[in-house]
């Protein structure tokens, strides 16, 4: 055994499958997401259906350390709204993140603390630099699984509660087309 040569963890770029390292998987079910969809009640028709799974290498956290994970967001809609992740700011607001599109088609929705929101298309090979102070959510607008690799500071944390009105944009299918709509509040 030569401990000068350590075998690396591995990622299958085409599918997002992680291997050769200790893994944690967290699956989020449609039934957990009723609060984020316009027609939230419709999530209760299939509450046990997985909406997305996040695989990450189980590595030590701490100041300066990075986590690496892959989100697999399944295709589907709740009413006319495409499946999406819950979305979050980081608890450590100043900390950013990088997403890399691996497979499928979708959008990365970002929103700053002033409430300005925008999207970037996600596809195999896309690179997304999420600045600090910016909430982020993946949306699957395609018919295949959307998979994206993420690298983020282990100290970032997730804050799911600081978007009291949700994101300012919604992504729906209308007449067979992807439409990005501004949300009207009040
Ligand atoms: O670190 C990230 O931003 C991702 O790994 C997300 O946590 C993942 O996509 C799941 O989204 P959420 O945490 O909003 O449920
Ligand atoms: Ni994040």
From TrEMBL:
Q: Which residues form the Glucose-6-phosphate isomerase prokaryote domain?
A: 32-177
Q: One Pfam family this chain carries?
A: GPI
Principal EC category: isomerase
Q: Under which EC number(s) is this enzyme classified?
A: 5.3.1.9
Q: What pathway does the annotation place this protein in?
A: Carbohydrate degradation; glycolysis; D-glyceraldehyde 3-phosphate and glycerone phosphate from D-glucose: step 2/4
| Entry keywords, A to Z | Gluconeogenesis, Glycolysis, Isomerase, Metal-binding
Q: Which residues form a coiled coil?
A: none
Q: Which domain of life is it from?
A: Bacteria
State whether keyword Disulfide bond applies. Answer: no
Name the chemical reaction catalysed here: alpha-D-glucose 6-phosphate = beta-D-fructose 6-phosphate
Question: For this protein, what is any one GO molecular function term?
Answer: isomerase activity
In the record, the note on similarity to other proteins reads: Belongs to the archaeal-type GPI family.
UniProt name for this protein: glucose-6-phosphate isomerase
Upper lineage ranks?
Bacteria, Pseudomonadati, Pseudomonadota, Gammaproteobacteria, Enterobacterales
């Amino acid at each position: 055994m030569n401990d000068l040569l350590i075998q690396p963890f591995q990622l299958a770029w085409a599918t997002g499958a992680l291997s050769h390292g200790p893994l944690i998987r967290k699956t989020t079910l449609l039934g957990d997401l009723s609060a984020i969809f316009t027609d939230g009640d419709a999530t209760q028709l299939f509450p046990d259906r997985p909406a997305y799974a996040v695989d990450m290498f189980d590595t030590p956290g701490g100041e300066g350390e990075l986590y690496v994970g892959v989100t697999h967001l399944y295709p589907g809609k709740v009413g006319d709204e495409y499946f999406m992740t819950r979305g979050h700011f980081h608890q450590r607001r100043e900390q950013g993140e990088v997403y890399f599109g691996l497979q499928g088609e979708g959008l990365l929705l970002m929103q700053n603390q002033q409430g300005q929101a925008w999207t970037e298309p996600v596809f195999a090979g896309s690179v997304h630099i999420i600045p600090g102070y910016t909430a982020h959510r993946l949306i699957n607008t395609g018919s295949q699984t959307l998979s994206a690799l993420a690298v983020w500071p282990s100290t970032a944390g997730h804050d799911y509660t600081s978007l009291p009105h949700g994101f300012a944009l919604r992504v729906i299918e209308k007449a067979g087309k992807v439409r990005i709509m501004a949300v009207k509040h009040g």
